[in-house]
Design goal:
- About 75% of the residues lie in helices and about 0% in strands.
- It contains 5 helices and no strands.
- Helix 3 packs across helix 4 and helix 3 packs antiparallel against helix 5.
- The two termini are about 50 Å apart.
- The relative contact order is 0.11.
- The mean pLDDT is about 80.
Length: about 130
């Protein structure tokens, strides 16, 4: 005969009655988990959701800061390159030629996209904070 305390522990773990364990009576496991387990599960789910939201916010801030820094560096690089030009091929002058008629345009677009993505992520997370 198994120890009574162990039978009770097993019935709690598997959410069945002790009769089900001892007498082999065909009954469905208890559908309602104890309220304590529900509270713990809900608390863990809430903590996990908050952690995910925090990670998304950190990622948004990273994209925003990295995007602004790279956008600034791209514009400064275009300005330095513009100083070396003796002729220009756009109506925007040396700086326009340096920015829009060279490979610097690709860096400018990527930097602007990173900045925009960071802004959009942060807007989404700050607007929908606590609404999920």
């Amino acid at each position: 005969m198994p120890d009574t305390e162990k039978v009770i522990q097993l019935s709690r773990i598997f959410h069945v009655t002790t009769d089900y364990l001892l007498l082999d009576i065909d009954e469905a496991p208890q559908s309602a988990a104890p309220a304590e387990n529900n509270r713990e599960t809900e608390q863990r789910a809430a903590e996990k959701q908050m952690k995910r939201q925090s990670m998304r916010m950190h990622f948004g801030w990273f994209l925003l800061i990295f995007g602004v820094i790279s956008l600034s560096a791209t514009l400064v690089g275009a300005g330095l390159y513009a100083q070396t030009l003796t002729e220009w091929r756009t109506n925007l002058g040396r700086y326009g030629t340096a920015l829009f008629d060279s490979w610097i345009l690709a860096l400018f677009i990527v930097s602007a996209a990173l900045t925009l993505c960071g802004i959009l992520i942060l807007i989404r997370e700050y607007i929908f904070i606590g609404k999920e």
